[in-house]
Amino acid sequence: MEGVRFALLLSTAERYVALLTNFICIVVVSRLMTPDEVGVSVVGMAVMVLALSAREFVSTNYLIQARTITKEDVQTAFTMMTVFTLVMSFIIYFSAPTIAVIYENAGLVSYLRIVTLAFAIEVFSAPVMSLFRREMAFGKIATINITSNAVSTVLVIILAEFGFSYMSFAWGWFATATLTCVLSLIISPRLWVFTPCLSRWRMMLTFGGYNGAITVMHRLSEQLPFLLLGRLLSLHHVAIYSRSLLVCQLPDRVILGGAGAVILPAFAAEVRKGRDLKAPYLMALEIVSGILWPALCLLAILAEPVVIIVLGNQWLEAVPLVRIIAFALIFSLGFDLNYPILVSLGAVRDMFLRTLIVAPISVLITFMAAFIGLKAVAYSLFIIMPFQALVSLYFIRKHINVPWNELAKSLQPSLVVALCGASAAFAMTLAVPLNGIAILPIFLCISSGLAGWLFGLWLTAHPLTEEIRHILGWLQLARSKQSVR
């Protein structure tokens, strides 16, 4: 158990370090590049993310899931991924000029060709990293990923400062792929992995079927809006929308970023013990919504200073979009809980069906909104988010007996808490109006929101109240032990 806890701690630490380095990179680079320049990298990245998701059909994750593996399994995984990657790389490399013509930007050619090389290099580290995960060698994984992310961040910032523009991101990806490959082979020089073999290809494709289809459709629904906006509007609009989404995802990543490493093992343990997931699911939903909803409301209120602090003054066009998207994300209703629950129940087919339903419809709604304009795309999330949440809940309720009235009842306290926090923060902005990034109004707004949030927790006897008491008690105990020493 101690080993599992330590592994989870390392995994969580790695996530937050990666989040911090990426955040620093975005804060600095957003001030060194214009939205038009960033738009090139967003479209190029969208193309490559779709290629990465397609590679899940032959993913080396099979090596993590299988009960037992042989050398032939590992070699087959490497061989199939290499063949698939070379084919995809060939297609993207030689279609780059056509993609550049479609988006009327010649810079996409060089960008796509560099990241295609990075895409190809990754095949040499993928099987080794999967073996590390199978062996729960999270210390090695953390060392490699943290080093690669740090080097990539520094390189991107330096190149952007010296005028490499959007190519800074391409070379950053190339550096990450190369360094990850080198470090993984230095730490574990298993050269036998790279022996060509196809003896286990059926097992690989069987595993990759649902997994690949789910990943492709999910990524398609995420990345297609950027590709559509780039074609129907402009690369400038793509960048504004992309960065607006990024800012709105900060509460989820900062507050709940480490929870992903814990949720799946926790639910899986409950299933192995034969316990009903209803109570832990509702509790998790209450806690997630009790933190995330007030944070999103506060973000919407503080949209202008947050955009200035994170992105800079040249991104002020994103402010109204941030307000719209932040409120729309409230309707996601604990989206991060759906995947671990269905996986822990072994309902991979239901995950596939869910994605098969929501992905095409979400893309269609975005496509129609893109013809109207950027704000329409943002407002379309008020349709997309509730729709995705309802479909997810339909499949969740197939496996967990959660009546709709109980679900609504569990979310009511969080709604009250969010309203209390948002009302207090908004009232303070009326008394002391926000003025750019003036410190006092921002401080008073956040303090009022926090006070309103705490009042809401007390008023509703929210489960978070007990969690806060536990944390305070633990801190007091730790302090008393330190004073005794």
TrEMBL record:
Entry superkingdom: Bacteria
Q: Does the keyword Transport apply?
A: yes
* Residues that span the membrane, as ranges: 16-33, 39-58, 78-103, 109-132, 144-164, 170-193, 291-312, 318-339, 351-371, 377-395, 415-432, 438-459
Q: Which InterPro entries match?
A: Poly_Biosynth_Transport
Task: Name the protein family.
Answer: Belongs to the polysaccharide synthase family.
Listed PANTHER family: LIPOPOLYSACCHARIDE BIOSYNTHESIS PROTEIN WZXC, PST FAMILY PREDICTED COLANIC ACID TRANSPORTER
Protein name, as recorded: Sugar transporter
Q: Which Pfam family, any one of them, does this sequence belong to?
A: Polysacc_synt_3
Membrane topology is: Multi-pass membrane protein
Query: Localized where?
Result: Cell membrane
UniProt keyword terms in alphabetical order = Cell membrane, Membrane, Sugar transport, Transmembrane, Transmembrane helix, Transport
